[in-house]
């Protein structure tokens, strides 16, 4: 069972998300919160696998909550929720440790599938969305230079794996594409996260876009 915490300052949004996710046999919404402080408390109390986090809330906002949750032992996957498909605030959320982001208008059937993807530890961020986010960054050129310096130290195979992360591929998909064992891919990913100083796969994937490793 995938345990989920829903965070939004609009009760109707929380109720809507709870209804959608509750229709899936393998998903349980264990708590909902209306600001970031409540969200952190709910995560500590209920230990969910996934948190759907609104970013713009009064009081403690979603970004601050993501930063706090990322520092917890064995933190859940936090997926940022936004009303925009390319929100500059989302960039900060991803760098703070979010596992990806979803637009609130995501169709119900897609939302359920994407929650399952996040629960499995995969990136919830389309290549198109990542490209828009990188392009929106005010200091995108500097970040691109920094990203290329970081990735220059990777081996050719590590670079291939990183590019696949930028496309949002799972370990199984990467293994098929690169003709590797899935366990080998997992090992590559773990080493790269340390080498690139990335907190999770999503940050690594965004780095791949900034470094120009993902074909547009």
Automatic annotation (TrEMBL):
Keyword Metal-binding appears in the UniProt entry: no
Modified residues (4-aspartylphosphate): 54
GO molecular function, one term: DNA binding
Coiled coil: none
Organism for this UniProt entry: Amycolatopsis oliviviridis
Pfam families: GerE, Response_reg
Residue span, HTH luxR-type domain: 147-212
Keyword terms, alphabetized: DNA-binding, Phosphoprotein, Transcription, Transcription regulation
Entry protein name: DNA-binding response regulator
Matching InterPro entries: CheY-like_superfamily, NreC/VraR/RcsB-like_REC, Sig_transdc_resp-reg_C-effctor, Sig_transdc_resp-reg_receiver, Tscrpt_reg_LuxR_C, WalR-like
Response regulatory domain: residues covered: 3-119
Domain of life, per lineage: Bacteria
């Amino acid at each position: 069972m995938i345990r989920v915490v829903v965070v939004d300052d609009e009760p109707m949004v929380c109720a809507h998300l709870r209804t959608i996710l509750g229709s899936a046999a393998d998903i349980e919404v264990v708590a909902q919160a209306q600001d970031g402080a409540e969200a952190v408390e709910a995560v500590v109390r209920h230990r969910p696998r996934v948190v759907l986090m609104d970013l713009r809330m009064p009081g403690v906002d979603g970004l601050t909550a993501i930063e706090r949750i990322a520092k917890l032992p064995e933190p859940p996957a936090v997926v940022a929720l936004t009303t925009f498909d390319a929100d500059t605030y989302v960039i900060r959320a991803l760098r703070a440790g979010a596992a990806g982001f979803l637009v609130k208008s995501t169709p119900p059937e897609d939302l359920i599938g994407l929650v399952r993807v996040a629960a499995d530890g995969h990136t919830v961020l389309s290549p198109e969305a990542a490209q828009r986010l990188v392009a929106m960054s005010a200091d995108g050129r500097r970040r691109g230079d920094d990203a290329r310096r970081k990735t220059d130290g990777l081996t050719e195979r590590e670079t291939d794996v990183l590019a696949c992360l930028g496309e949002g591929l799972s370990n199984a998909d990467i293994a098929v594409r690169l003709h590797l064992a899935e366990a080998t891919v997992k090992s590559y990913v773990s080493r790269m996260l340390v080498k690139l100083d990335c907190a999770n796969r999503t940050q690594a994937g965004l780095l791949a876009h900034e470094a120009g490793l993902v074909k547009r």
